[in-house]
Input
Amino acid sequence: MLSRVAENLYWMSRYVERAENTARLISVNSNLLLDLPGGIAPGWAPLVDIMGVRGDFDSRFKETDERRVLMFLIADLNNAGSILSSLHYARENCRTVRDIMPREIWEELTELYLYARENINTGLTKRGRFAFLKRIIYGSELFIGMLASVQSRDEAYDFIRIGRNLERADMTTRIIDVRSDDLLPDDVSDLRPFDTIQWVSVLRSLSAYQMYRRHMQTRVRRDAVLRFLFKDKQFPRAVRHCLNMIEGCLEELKNNEQPLKRVRTLVRKVERRNVETLDQAALHGYIDDLQLNITSLHSTLAETYFPKSVQQQEVQ
Amino acid sequence: MPIEFKTYEIPTYDEVMSRANRARNHAIPLLRTLREFDDEELETRQSAADMAIKEMGITFTVYTEGTAIDRAWPFDIVPRIIPKSEWDVVEAGLKQRVQALNLFIDDLYHGQKIITDGVFPREVLAKSKNFRPQCVGIDPPLGIWAHICGSDLVRDSDGTIYVLEDNLRVPSGVSYMLENRLITKRVFPELFNEYSPLPVDGYPSQLFDTLCDLAPKRKSSPEVAVLTPGIYNSAYFEHAYLAQQMGCELVEGRDLFVDKKDFVYMHTIAGPRRVDVIYRRIDDEFMDPEVFNKESILGVPGLMRAWKAGNVALANAPGAGVADDKVVYAFVPEIIRYYLDQEALIPNVQTYRCMFEEERRYVLEHLHELVVKPANESGGYGMLMGPSATKAERETFAKLIEQDPRNYIAQPMVGISTVPTVVGRNLEARHVDLRPFILSGSSIQVTAGGLTRVALRKGSLVVNSSQGGGSKDTWIVDTGVQ
Output
């Protein structure tokens, strides 16, 4: 497979996953805000932090109110991580690999992108938001499902899965990082009823609530949620599961020595750390370390498989 | 309301209607089916087709201000139907034409016997923009230069089919031909009860086989790649489509490199991989910066070296465009006679070559009724439409012709035939042409029909996608009538 094609597939898949995760986040945040008492509601600012676009946002907007944040995260083409941008880039990446994708995939991505573009104003209203976001999530899952049912388990499929799982692992750590930062001061006991809501919302952002209940057999508690979202082997959005998937794909590929080494280091970091015992500061430090490792996993993949820049080619 | 055929206006030869309310024999079942529609149904079907095109992502790309815009290419649901008995003659004529043109190109790059024998003037070759001296003496596989040819046909008001031009560089449009059939099946299925049009979907495998025929050293499974200028090219959709349908790699210049031993490789995730045949959709000038345009970043340095060494086959071969010239066109009947000792089965449009004094004199005296075309422009640039031109324009052209007679040809106005086309809720006559595709490898194959392009604006003769053109499905049907 062409190096350029591998890179396009990887990014196509990452962007679709990013659009879906952003849609999930916004959707769950809307619900959370309806559930929490006004005084302690975290508002919309945390979403900007989760997406890691704080600097960009602040340079353009003074306030982090609902309208601006949603505009930025859903519709802003200057924000490379917005839903519309993500779908646009996913489609552009797909366009250049149209020859090797099943045509249904291109058709679905085109349809999804056109839907997002044409219904963006509805998506920004309170009333239309839910249906809009649902369609985005549904479109992403349709994309994944179609690939699962019609794409041969070849190298192309491996790069698609690597992209998806890397983006997913990254996003799960981001969501935990920002959302575990306690909304409620520890000493205010009369707010206890709402403590659960915060962790339920983390789970719901990742569609993890039901699976958590079934597999953890316990009420929603910080330690158990952390253990589940980092270390569960079976839940598809748990960090460990995502990393294991990447590892599995890499095992199928040639020239896999360096990237395999990287991903296995990461897997060990997740397996061996008792996340549930970490306090907020330690957890934050741990997540920072994981994210740096995810970034260098990406760099190793790029060095190994993707096209080299012109200078590198000359050296070669 | 039923669709009205009594008021159908016929400006020239119509492919379906012999006169208002009366269909030609081969089109009777088509008209019968359409009569069962009411006008609302017609509009609904057309919208369904438009929607299908959008969803299927069938586009051509317009590149402006740094962004690529996909435009759906309008499709009209009423197919253009040609009886097989008539098509058989056209098909034979196209094979004859392409065979002669390939012999001609090979001769130009070798002994130039046709010039020594006085059939083709040396000065025409001397002024050819697409003759590549770098190709002289090269023997491409099977001696074939133009492996993929798209010839444009039109039907005059008397019903005769003429060749208007031959595209031997990188003709496009075949993907739309294939997609059009899929859409017609989706939106107009009942018409298939009346006719069994010859299938067109064999084209990608025929193309693949043709390309494999060219592989060096007759490898059993050669590595074939489609070379595209990239996503900003207006035909990118087609490049991707053909690569996909043939199951081979779609590469850009930056994916390829030529090593010191003159072999071509592509960068893959498992390291470099040899390429044997390249279906290139890049013009000669941009193909190899070592030999042609030094500024080109689309091409592959060293590609010509590899081709000359016989390590990679290029389709079409560099230099094939020499026959893609309006003055050469005027000589095609002579070219066929010279190489094949046959008369052309499909006539050329009567063409006056200004380089010959007698013909030039006729052109200058009849400018008001002729179309004057420069030799190497395409897309209608630099043309004079005699009947609609002003006196001043005609005088300007008269001067241009006298200054550089070799560069001009002139033709009488051809009445281009029409086909009923959906306009709102009604059917109106719109002008069409036809581009069949001819593949030359170890055998010559012609598509069953081709791409019918239709000028959607009333009275317009311009069928180009960028200027209000659309397309129709084209059916070759065996009516049993001889």
Summary: Residues 352-412 of chain B form a domain with the Dna Ligase; domain 1 fold (CATH 3.30.1490.270). The mean pLDDT of chain B is 91.
